[in-house]
Amino acid sequence: MDSLWKDTAAAAYRDELELRAYTSRLLGQDKTLVLHGGGNTSVKIKEKNIFGEAEQVLYVKGSGWDLETIAAAGFTPVRLEHTKKLAQLPELSDPEMINQLVTHQTRASAPVPSVEAILHAILPYSYVDHTHANAIIAITNTVDGEARIREIYGNTVVVIPYVMPGFDLAKLCAERFAAEAGPQTIGMVLLNHGIFSFGENAKESYERMIMLVGRAEDYLKRHNAWDVAPSSVTAAHGMQLAHTQAKLRADISRVAGFPVLVTRYADDKTLSFARRADVAVIAQQGPATPDHVIRTKRLPMLGRDVTAYVEDYKKYFHAHEPQARERKTMLDAAPRVVLDSELGLCAVGKSAKETNIVADIYEHTIDIILRATALGGYCALPAKDIFDVEYWDLEQAKLRKGGKPLLFSGEVALVTGAASGIGKACVESLLARGAAVVALDLDAKVSALTNSANFLGLQCDLTSEVQFKQALEQAVEKFGGMDMLVLNAGIFPGGCRIDSLKTDEWQKVMRINLDANLMLMRECHPFLKLAPRGGRVVVIGSKNVPAPGPGAAAYSASKAALNQLARVAALEWGADNIRINSLHPNAVFDTGLWTAEVLASRAKHYGLTVDEYKKNNVLKTEVSSRDVAELTAELCGPLFAKTTGAQIPVDGGNDRVI
């Protein structure tokens, strides 16, 4: 642990709340302290109310904010005296606790206060910091964890046995703190949960946290339980492994009841952990800290027997649900973490953001488990305690805030020719509907189209089967499979009449516009066949299929052949629940093919203005890349669920086609 406090940086903040946000971000930057919304901080500030009366206000981290990025607006002001008095009540239900906190905010637009607001209120310090430090959790998740904590800290911290967060924990902490705290007290350790530090100013509270966690790390080092780096292992690769991962994704999606992404991690750390001889013991104890259960479930799945995992989850639910204070409805039983000797660590979620969070949490969990094991044995909380948090209404509410999932949430689309024009627009339309999108293009700029976690851009020459297979393997490793395929890549050579068309030019057009797409369809078929909602293919064709023009023999013939290939595939793949439809755009001018100079030249050739030329169709409307992309996305959606083998013009109406 090293303090990140900088006097020069701190001097730029003009008040206590901004300093509170500053040190909170310092904590959030260190993933060994807090992960993805974990931890909370507060500051007590005297302010004047609307009547001009001075009152103490507790500014506590608001729900939905992350310490790594929190700003002053992320802290919710609640009246301190009222919040402290809540801890004196004999009992307080969770809904009423939230009601009391929300109705005693001094700013109605503030987020809902942290469920640990009462705990922050009862601690008699201006600044309070709370983290789920890896080192603390590793030590407390051992058989003799409490004794070790007391050995490390003596009377400088108050030690609290595990109690579920919320009112009960706050009440217990108030009692223990009143009885045990003294002038030497600078922190509080919550067994199997985390650690608090406090002080009279932002720097003191923050640096006490760093010092306290540092002492735990030093303890682990002295007991040879710190350096748990694995030895190098050999990872499997290849298309067969990709098929295995896609099959796992299909099985998990089936039991979840909705499509999921499955991201695979196969580095030395995850593979060596998955291959440990004792993994069935150390990985089946429970999460490192109870709040992780919301993201990871109580236990990871070992291997790929999804049916067995579901049965075990149902037994877990039915064993503990009868003891709950109110009736519970079982959540989906699908795993969120998979440990497999061949695949390594697989993280499951409805989006890449979710899988990233799951993986991040479990990679830190691996460190905690290994350090606790080296210290004498990892020992997580009993299943009942984990169940109480997993089915805690206040935690479930955090997940429900996401609202209704987007149309393609948990699904994967692959788009070719995606660096510009129609392909780029297709990427944007699919991302907007929640899909994870793999974008391929010969142009290297495809990799930087967007920084969305749901995006993977890969430079790829589609005429190279080797390059495409490598890209496909990367796509499956990243997202788990494929649901939608948009065949957009192609070339339109300069006008050339047949009597001047060279063989090598003809073959080049066929290789790119036809042969490459045959290979793509063939290699993608096994993955599309596993798509939870059925596979979908959209072929971006051309007006030249039904209405070819002179000077475009190679282009027209290649697109017509591709169109025929799509029709045959629609016949062959219907039994695999894969539907294939074609769009035939025309005169889409917002692409790289149409510069201002070319547009002006073509318009002049027809005796039209540029605007007239762009709208030279039956409907007198301009067709954009986005128009084609939006229809492409809709073809993959439920509106066209019963349509395959269709050919749809996107051209504003062309008299020759009509």
Tally of separate helices: 24
The assigned CATH architecture of the largest domain is 3-Layer(aba) Sandwich
Poorly predicted spans: none
Distance between the termini: 72 Å
Structural class: alpha/beta
The percent range for helix content is 40-55%
Main attributes?
single chain; 658 residues; alpha/beta; L-fuculose-1-phosphate Aldolase; Rossmann fold; 4 domains; seven-stranded mixed β-sheet; seven-stranded parallel β-sheet; elongated
Tell me briefly what this model is.
The protein has 658 residues and is an alpha/beta fold. 42% of the residues lie in helices and 15% in strands. The protein has four domains: 7-222, Class II aldolase/adducin N-terminal domain (L-fuculose-1-phosphate Aldolase), CATH 3.40.225.10; 239-394, Class II aldolase/adducin N-terminal domain (L-fuculose-1-phosphate Aldolase, 3-Layer(aba) Sandwich), CATH 3.40.225.10; 412-588 and 623-650, NAD(P)-binding Rossmann-like Domain (Rossmann fold, 3-Layer(aba) Sandwich); 593-622.
